[in-house]
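Chain entry —
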Amino acid sequence: MHRAVSLPRRMRRRLTIAFVLVAGLLTAALALATFLIVRDARLADSVSRGERETRFALQLAAGLGSGADLQQFVDGFEGRGLHAVLLEGGRRFASDPSVDPPIPGAVQRLVAEGQLAYDRLEVAGEPYLVVGGRPPGTAADLYLLFPEQSLQRDLSELWNVLVLGWVAALVVSTLVGWLVARRTLAPVAEAAQAARAMAEGLLDTRLPVESADEFGAWAASFNEMAEALEAKVRALSEAQTRERRFTSDVAHELRTPITALVSEAGLLAERLDQMTPQMRRPAELLIADVARLRRLVEDLMEISRLDAGREVVEMAPLDLAALVTSTIRSRGWRNRVTLSAEAVRVVSDRRRLERIVSNLVGNAVEHGGGHVEVAVETSPGGAVVTVADRGPGIDPADLPHLFERFYKADPARSGSGSGLGLPIALENARLLGGDIEVQSGPGAGSRFTLRLPDAPPASQPPPAAPPSEL
């Protein structure tokens, strides 16, 4: 059973995922790079502003003596929206006692060396930039605290916007990728549907050539292949029809003269005892050849009816073991066949079953090298007839061709067989809803197994009533 468009869907899914991954990675890298660049620029601007303000404040504090009102000096920074901390001689002056963080030691060491130093701290959960320096001509250290709440808020909003933009880009890329993959793989889906249609016998299926790209060239090549295949199949079908018609015509044309030959051979057989030994042997050979020719014509007639679908199947309940037994007895094989049969009832066609059993057993008797074993058994859902011989066996290379018409494992072998017995048996078995299997090997004999259902196939109606003789 065909899996409809599963392959195109998987390819479409993979292409969409690849498109989304590429777009997602690129947009993520772009968003991250944008955020890092903006963040570094804003932080650098904040540091530059802090350094400018601090240098100005240090100039204001130049020459500030120890006797000056240091607390009043640092309080003056509050009016400018800044917080200040002044360290002088072990004393500490803060413009706002609530914003009086401990100054990092690394910053204090740099300031003590006369450098301008900065660091970032959190005070009461709020971010601040601390910039410090030593006013000229003093022994004090001045530190200004610049609030960076608005800066961090702006960076957080920028991050949120970039994340939302990245998510939106993923959604858009998913939609665009799915549409692009669908459009790109549409010719693949059409080609898959066309191939399935051709596999189902619609040999006139063609692909539309809508573009001059690779898919257009592919469609044109597919159409050329389909046309060549259609022409080849049509030629083979016509050849097969001619062959079947020839077989049917030959069989019908030979039927009338063969009937006359059989009648004349019968008259000749009645006078064999009156012939001299020199005349009797050619007459016997003639009678045997006429009988062989009659069987060949009968086989050809049946093959032509099977090919034309004119065979009627008459289903009826029957005892399979009794049918096999009577078939073996009627053909005089009782001394060469060992039968093991259990009572098995099936609904099938008596005439066709007799033909199948006679063909299988006759083939084993003729080529099986002596004794033949036949078994009739029940099986799950039906019955099994096994015909086994102890002959030379069949070469593995010949097994696949064994049921082909006119095929003989040894082309040089001469015998009464027409090469149609096994193909006719297989065709009849399939008409009855069954099948024939073969197991063989060189020196191991051969085993043919006929499998039959216990009920008629779905295309055949069950019998209205069992026949009167049963």
